[in-house]
Specification:
The chain is of the alpha/beta class. The protein folds into 2 domains: 126 residues, Aspartate Aminotransferase, domain 1; 252 residues, Type I PLP-dependent aspartate aminotransferase-like (Major domain) (Aspartate Aminotransferase, domain 2), CATH 3.40.640.10. The strands form 3 sheets. A 7-stranded mixed β-sheet has the order 2-8-7-6-5-3-4, sandwiched between helices. It is globular, with a radius of gyration of 22 Å.
């Protein structure tokens, strides 16, 4: 197997690692799919915003730039990372709030249908929200049972669909296993059954190339603090296909989603287009950091990012086989079925994770017994992966 330092030397993207805060420290960071490292240039952007825009322009900033920022950033996310034409993506609210809005909007677009389909290993928030929406709207949930080391396949989805299905809720990359779902194929199956699909892109956007328009996707939501490096709690984005924009009615009717926000009239009329997905005042400060990462992704291209991601995850799996033979890989071994992280299972991984954090080696833990390695393509090196796995070996040995 090629050594880590040789792979780093041959990595055409290696120079980009120097652009991130903390990559020159000895800390091993293997949790980029929970929170991405900040870019160094972001510190300058935040400081400049406080002094030049917020401090100098004050309320005038809304007219000059801030009011349009949710749409401007949404278009940029769509262009750089989603494969989505302009006018279909907007930034605002948390992932949870946007998922709720689009779930409610989707079931309203399929009156007379009574079921929401989703898998039992979808991210907890997605499952909790679907349960709540079903109770609010008098619907039932149809569950897909999946292997937690993989995810939803065409056969599993086809068996769950019927003429009663209003909405299918799926994650493009499974948060536990990194299973990479067939976006186009599963969307087509749902459409053949007359249902809509809501994609959660939180663990794929910025790591895996997406093609929402080519999939004929309906709706999607994703967070921006993982591979888009927007910072803790950075606002999420929502995508609504152009063909649905005139029909969709989201349930949280706030002034920013109104046709004329400053009319302050007695009744609500939705804004045209994607603007209607907004509710309250946009979190402008939370939108700043992701601009730098979007610029970087636009410069590099998602195909190159994906190639590096596949290299890192394949290296992690190969080295785990050598260094950690008592662990099992709880992620797809086929790279074409795998997103940007790798999960290694062992009964003592909770203890291992706690010990690693004390040693400045930072992976994540997911039940049952999963050590999750989130490998951000631009900020993670092969040497970092090697040092992290060797630390896992040392901790397991110390536990006896």
């Amino acid at each position: 197997m090629t050594a880590a330092h040789d792979l780093d030397a041959a990595d055409t993207l290696r120079s980009y690692r120097d652009l991130f805060v903390g990559t020159d420290s000895p800390l091993v960071y293997l949790d980029g799919n929970s929170l991405g490292r900040p870019l160094k240039v972001t510190a300058e952007r935040l400081s400049s915003f406080v002094t030049d825009e917020w401090g100098d322009r004050l309320i005038r900033g809304w007219d000059e730039r801030w009011m349009a920022l949710p749409r401007v950033l949404g278009n940029e996310i769509g262009r750089v990372a989603l494969g989505a034409a302009a006018g279909q993506t907007i930034v605002g609210d948390s992932t949870t709030v946007l998922l709720y809005k689009l779930m409610r909007a989707a079931v309203a677009l399929r009156p007379g249908r009574t079921e929401i389909v989703l898998d039992r290993d979808n991210f907890p928030t997605d499952r909790y929200l679907a349960d709540g929406v079903a109770r609010e709207c008098g619907l039932t949930l149809t569950w897909i049972d999946v292997d937690t080391t993989s995810g939803v396949t065409a056969d599993l989805l086809a068996a769950a669909l019927s003429e009663r299905t209003a909405l299918v809720v799926l994650s493009h990359v499974a948060y536990r296993s990194a299973w990479l779902a067939d976006g186009a194929g599963l969307t087509r199956l749902a459409h053949d059954a007359g249902a809509l699909v809501l994609w959660d892109l939180s663990h794929s956007v910025g790591s895996v190339p997406l093609a929402l328009d080519a999939w004929d996707a309906d709706l999607a939501v994703g967070c921006t603090y993982k591979y888009l490096n927007g910072g803790p709690g950075a606002p999420a984005f929502a995508y609504v296909a152009a063909r649905l924009l005139d029909e969709v009615v989201q349930p949280i009717q706030g002034w920013m989603g109104a046709a004329d926000p400053f009319l302050m009239g007695p009744s609500y009329a939705p804004a045209p287009g994607i603007q209607r997905i907004l509710s309250g005042t946009p979190p402008i400060v939370g939108m700043l950091a992701m601009q730098d990462m979007l610029a970087l992704l636009g410069e590099i291209g998602m195909d190159a990012v994906r190639e590096k991601s596949l290299g890192l995850t394949s290296y992690a799996i190969d080295r785990a086989a050598d260094l950690l033979p008592e662990t099992t890989v709880a992620s797809p071994v086929d790279p074409m079925l795998r997103g940007g992280h790798v999960t290694l299972n062992h009964p003592r991984m909770r203890e291992v994770t706690q010990a690693l954090w004390q040693r400045d080696v930072v992976p994540d833990f997911r039940d049952p017994g999963g050590l999750r390695l989130g490998l951000s393509p631009l900020s993670t090196s092969y040497d970092e992966v090697e040092r992290g796995l060797r630390a896992v070996r040392e901790v397991l040995d110390s536990l006896g």
